[in-house]
Amino acid sequence: RAAAAAAAPDGAAGADGDALPAPAPVPDAAAQRRGWELLKKSIHGAINRVNRSNIRPTILRLLQTADLVRGRGLFARAVLRAQTASPGYAPVYAALVSVLSSKLPELGELILERCVLAFRRAYGRRDAPAASAAAAFLAHLVNQGVAHEILALQILTLLLEDPATDDAVALAVHFVREAAAGLQALTPRGLNAVMERMRAVLQGGALGARVQYSLEELFDLRRRNWEGHPAMTRELDLVEDEDRITFEVSLDDDTLKKQEMLDVFRFDPKYTDNERTWERIRAEILGEDGDGDDSTDSGSGSDGTASDSDSETNSDSDGDDDGNHQLAALPGKVVQQPIRDLTESDLIDLRRAIYLTIMSSASFEECGHKLAKLDIPEGREDELVNMVIECCSQERTFLRYYGLVGQRFCMLHDRWRDAFVRAFAAQYSTVHRLETNKLRNVAKFFSFLLHTDALPWSVLASVRLNEDDTTSSSRIFVKILVQEMAEALGVGTLRERLEDPRVADGLAGMFPRDNPRNTRYAINFFTSVGLGPLTDGLRDHLKNAPKLIMQQAQEEAAKAAVEAERRRLDGSSSSSSSSSSSSSSSSSSSSSGSSRGRRRG
What we know:
Elements: H1 2-12, H2 29-49, H3 55-65, H4 72-85, H5 90-103, H6 105-124, H7 128-143, H8 149-159, H9 166-186, H10 188-204, H11 209-223, H12 271-286, H13 296-318, H14 345-360, H15 364-372, H16 381-394, H17 400-412, H18 414-429, H19 436-451, H20 472-489, H21 491-498, H22 501-504, H23 516-528, H24 536-543, H25 545-600
């Protein structure tokens, strides 16, 4: 960077000896910090969105919007954190690092050194999940040609040394499964030596049944020539072999440095010069003419030539000379046509971004702020709600962290509260599918939202507490839900809230009064879970039920008598009217007959 900055003034001078322009002022610390935060946001957003289908445009967007020389520490930390949280995306992150490492070697070297240090630290602490994630990422870096195959053999030698433990052998099996296809092409003799060592460990009989079974599966996979585990897939093979840069980093190298100072903001007195240097590097990587060495006329002419050649190529391929529907493309890039994505990759990326945000936040305020900044479109509220509930259910015990996140979103906007209301009904209807621990966490989660008034109590209308409409799982759910609410509010306060006329109408299913059988069932249920005071109203209703039934029967009999009398009166009036009409008709017929007789006479 220093050499490029020193060479810039010489190249920027005009051919006719014009004076150099005055250097641009250096932004103050506040402006540089704002730029640093924007850089961090851009890098994290790109890392969270990248997947197999959009890795090419993501790399292009990253190079266009982020200074990867200044932010190489941020990029390395974001990649390592993301692959630790989502080990299934390790091949994608390795391909991303391979492409950028071929253009910016210091970036790939920094990530590789940090990953090796992370593996050494996790292995020394016996942290199996972290060691497995770091080993898998190193395996894919070997497949992509970023790390040398010697590093893979050193890791396997370390894991299989005597005495071989179950955890170390299981980690070695996982590493071989990810890197075997690449090692088969790079060092077949080394892979054969590793497999023979694994065979000796298996025959030693000192391993557990689970690890022995995984070793047998690995040997079967080897016989099938590593079917289903290629070194890299076609969509992730993005770098030509001659362009790959391989770093020979050793596992036992004591000179490796994490360079943590690159992860934090520092004031740069040469900020403007370094920004210009990055612009030239970026232009060289993307094939743009932005080096500023030529004069304005020649630079614009070269840009025009490149644009003309690109437009001619695009017009020949698309048959559209006016270019109104063509997208701006970089030199050597194919013009993208409108694509209809029917794979729901956007939905998958959204779920992944929500999950990573929830799991990586240090507090519920940070989590709520980051989730709110995701700008989740309307109609996708259920994705965030379901992800919060799913993450909560996966914990060993209930964490108030998830309840506070849900409470914040319920109070943020009505659309989030409505989404949680729908989620309660859906979770209660499918509660029989949950394991006991998940059921307990979900019940405590909704209990927290209810006793903090984040959710309206009308959601309890979904609960119908009777022998026919409940299962063992739903009864456990209601038990934990009500017990947690009683513990938070107190039994007296909870009873007052449940007897509130504004709430009681929606709790007819939870405290049934339609049938004495259902009423007795609800009384017995709440009494058995230690919440008998909540059923005082039901007990009074059941005590007065015979009187009420008799009173209702008398009222119904009186109504029936009144109805019968009304019908009788209606029938008598209709019969009298019909008799009068018949008499009038007979009199009229007799009078007409007498008149005919007189005429004949």
